[in-house]
Amino acid sequence: MSKFKVGDTVKVTKRFTSDDEPYVGNNYEINEVDEDDDYLLKGVDNDLCMVESQLELVKTKGFTKADMQLGQPYKVRNGNMMFWEKSEPSYNDNLEWSFGKQYDVVEVYLLKTTPIWKREEPKYRVKTELTKEQAEKLGLEFCEEVTDGTL
Hints:
The chain has about 150 residues and is mostly beta strands. The chain has one helix at about 130-135; strands spanning about 10, 25-35, 40, 55-60, 75, 80-85, 105-110, 115-120. Among the domains are: about 10-60; about 65-120, no CATH class. The chain contains 1 helix and 8 strands; from the N terminus they run ββββββββα. It is flat and about 70 Å long.
């Protein structure tokens, strides 16, 4: 199984021939993966293939249910590792479980230890106001709010 997939953005990091030289250091989208796991990149001469060791992942395209392979290891939100079965009707195309969030797929692996995709979670910032006692209970340093602009 290929490390990269069609739609991934990769950086060419090494050259094997002088033909590769103009592409080193640039980012390209993978256009095709052939039967030998050679990569054809958009914007690169059609006769020129790159191999896995020449490439570094820059950005992965979103992983979908259609990308999952039979027996592929994955981790769900509650931390359990599982293996993809033939038919997983409880998952939508975005690998979200139909009956709650605890079984949403959060990581997909090539082998059990080689992650190839990780769900990007939105980051939230929560403003909270604590009393001095609550802050001390949490082991936090309590600072009085300053209203005159001084520290």
